[in-house]
Design a protein that fits this description.
The protein is α+β, with helices and mostly antiparallel strands. It is built from five helices and ten strands. The strands form two sheets. The chain has a six-stranded antiparallel beta sheet, with no helix packed on it. It has a four-stranded antiparallel beta sheet with strand order 4-9-6-7, with no helix packed on it.
């Protein structure tokens, strides 16, 4: 095939994809309106089952399963606001969904960060929040970042090391770390759950 023929074939495939995405969006909205009696707009177990099927199809067709999962999650995230609007009925209809984003913890998958740690993140243009789950005896190595960081421990304990000084936070304790301040952190013999607020956004976390 000549280059132009290949480009035309790709354009045709892209057109089909857009058409299918449009149909999917309409079906997602209808599904959202039919889920009003369910506890959440997405069932994590069903989501995982679908991802497993997507990966299986990817293997059969020669596509990297990780890429297939990423595409699936991106597509579903694109339609979540429409589905939420239908799911929540009149309350969601009053929201400016172009500016307001709604996230439910069960809809967000924890991502590996460092050994012993998992996190998910949500953000806007100028600020963001991360949620961490840390296993016992997890070490977050010494580092610094441009973003200012405010951390609240939700469960367990988390020890920060700043200028060789150790500060242990317990549930409800908060630490505010300025931009570019060198620090590290670690857990003891208990797991820990913590929430971080960041400004500006750390795009690598999203």
């Amino acid at each position: 095939m000549e280059l132009e023929e290949i480009r035309q074939a790709i354009d045709a495939i892209d057109s089909e994809i857009i058409g299918l995405l449009s149909k999917r969006g309409n079906l997602v909205s209808k599904a959202g309106s039919l889920k009003s009696d369910e506890p959440a707009v997405r069932d994590p177990e069903r989501v995982q089952q679908i991802i497993n099927k997507v990966k299986a199809v990817a293997v059969r067709t020669g596509l990297d399963p990780a890429i297939a999962e990423q595409i699936y999650r991106t597509v579903t995230d694109c339609f979540i606001n429409n589905e939420l609007q239908e799911f929540r009925g009149e309350n969601a209809a009053s929201l400016d969904v172009d500016k307001i984003k709604v996230y439910f913890k069960d809809d967000l998958s924890l991502k590996p960060n460092v050994p012993g740690a998992q996190m998910w993140a949500v953000g806007l243009a100028k600020t963001m929040m991360t949620y961490f789950e840390l296993e016992p005896n997890t070490i977050l190595p010494k580092h610094s970042h441009e973003a200012e960081q405010i951390t609240m421990v939700m469960e367990g304990e988390l020890t920060f090391v700043l200028q060789e000084k150790e500060i242990t936070l317990k549930s409800g304790d908060v630490i505010a770390i300025p931009s570019n301040a060198l620090h590290s952190a670690f857990t003891g013999n208990k797991p820990c759950k913590a929430v971080d607020a960041w400004s500006p956004v750390r795009k690598g976390f999203l």
